[in-house]
Amino acid sequence: MNGTTFATTPSLDLLRDQPAWQDLGACQNADPEAWFPEQGGPTALAKDICRRCEVRTDCLEYALENREQHGIWGGLTERERTNLLRRQGGARRLAA
Ligand code: SF4
Fold first, then answer.
1. How far is the CA of 88 from the centre of ligand 1 (A)?
2. Where are the domains of the chain?
3. At a CB cut-off of 8 Å and minimum separation 6, what does 34 contact?
4. Contact indicator for 34, 71 with CB cutoff of 8 Å
5. Ligand 1: which residue has its CA nearest to atom 2?
6. Ligand 1 pocket residues where CB is under 6 Å
7. pLDDT (tens digit, 9 = 90+) per residue, 52-88?
8. Which residue, by CA, sits nearest to atom 3 of ligand 1?
9. Model pTM?
10. pLDDT at residue 94, rounded to an integer
11. SS3 letters for 24-42?
12. Distance 58 CA to ligand 1 centre (A)
């Protein structure tokens, strides 16, 4: 041993918690950094891929339900998801 440490593999419990739709995402083999740009960084590439993704709706629902704070999910940035949730909240109040 040379003192190098290696990352441990995720626990089986963590893998079981992964939604199946993620295996079908169009981003599976893409550079993940495109989905997690620095604030104000480019989002066009990730959004373009999301637009053509067959599990976009599942992805966006997951992000909204789990209040994902970072990255592009379902083709929307954090700010766009926050705005969508606000609009949905307003619509629910109007319907009540
Ligand atoms: S919608 Fe975008 S982020 Fe979500 S799985 Fe598809 S390509 Fe990936």
1. 21
2. 30-95
3. 27, 42, 45, 46, 49, 72
4. no
5. 50
6. 25-27, 35, 49-50, 53, 55-56, 59, 73-75
7. 999 999 999 999 999 999 999 999 999 999 999 999 8
8. 73
9. 0.78
10. 72
11. HCCCCCCCHHHHCCCCCCC
12. 9
